[in-house]
Fold:
Amino acid sequence: MNRAAAAIFLALLCSACPKRLEFGPEGRIEDAQTLYQHVQERQGRVVTLEGDSKLRVDSPQGSGTLSTFLSITRPGLIHLETYDFFNRPVASLVSDGTRFGVYQAQGNTYYQGPSSPENVSRFLPIVLPSEELVAVMLGQVPLLPPESMTLALDEKARVYVLTLVRGAATQTLRVDPRHLRVVKSEVRGVPGYDLAFEDFKQRGELLFPGKVILTASQADTKLELRYTEITLNGRPDLTLYELTAPEGAKVVDVDERGRELGGGAVSPPPPAPGS
Structure:
């Protein structure tokens, strides 16, 4: 066998060999509670996010992709703005964790009221508490408070499989063994949604997913958030979370279940400087 043929043979041989499973500085983790604590700690490192993304929505109400500006701060501060292909405003959502405001450009209407899951769903076609929405957009998995848990290592898929159990509900977490970040979450036994995190990149000292996929099978809805230019753990601009209706918009008050409370008023123009 000549050298060229030998080199090709060795390359093919090596490509057929499974790559060695890499663990982090902690080594292989055998205890479920220890891994659970590591997952919580890794997730808790990101507190704020601001920047641009692409939001893809597939739902019975419609499908499409929108450019999105977002500013997110734990535990429940949200500012989202969406734009169409021509960079025209479509809708915006602001929540301070207690109150919310949603502006819909089509109809020039501003809805305001308690920051309940039903009201947040006026912006996104999925019913989520604002704190859960913040967590998901920060690349975190809302964790089931477990009564028991088990841990296995899936060497073929190259992930830990951490299963949390609470009553009839189970949450299966697939965790990268090197960075101890959740790459997939599946909830069964109770109404819920699945999460997947992809395209992880190192941003300073933080490892953060470039794409978040939320799938709510019962609602036949899928959301895909792909980050483009973002900043993590910067100082938040708190003015972005102020609840103010756009000038001239019809203002509609709603209760915590999203029901309108009365006839809408038109928001007044802002006061003149010095008034």
